[in-house]
């Protein structure tokens, strides 16, 4: 998975592409932990091609960590794969 800046996303947003799945969970977790201290909470997921329950779990953990420090997770431009996974688990509110 590559971390890319998406032209439509604000420069401060972390843009991810590839899979948000159990296969990538460890690497993605490490990247999110690096990002978390300076994170403004904006995450561009327009480049995500697949998302499973491990990916959703990472998003929930990230949301909780941000909330504990007074910030909010903002999912920008979620891909169809992300939207479908959030809907599957009843988490539509996470992308609001």
From TrEMBL:
It comes from Sphaerotilus sulfidivorans. Coiled coil: none annotated. The lineage of its organism: Bacteria, Pseudomonadati, Pseudomonadota, Betaproteobacteria, Burkholderiales. Residues 14-96 form the STAS domain. CDD domains: STAS_anti-anti-sigma_factors. Pfam families: STAS_2 (PF13466). This is Anti-anti-sigma factor. InterPro entries: MlaB-like_STAS, MlaB_ABC_Transporter, STAS_dom, STAS_dom_sf.
């Amino acid at each position: 998975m590559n971390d890319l800046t998406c032209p439509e996303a604000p420069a401060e947003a972390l843009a991810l592409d590839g899979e948000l799945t159990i296969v990538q969970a460890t690497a993605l977790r490490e990247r999110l932990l690096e990002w978390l201290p300076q994170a403004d909470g904006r995450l561009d997921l327009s480049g995500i091609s697949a998302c499973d329950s491990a990916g959703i779990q990472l998003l929930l953990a990230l949301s909780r960590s941000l909330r504990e420090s007074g910030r909010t997770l903002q999912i920008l431009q979620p891909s169809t794969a992300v939207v479908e996974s959030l809907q599957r688990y009843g988490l539509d509110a996470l992308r609001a």
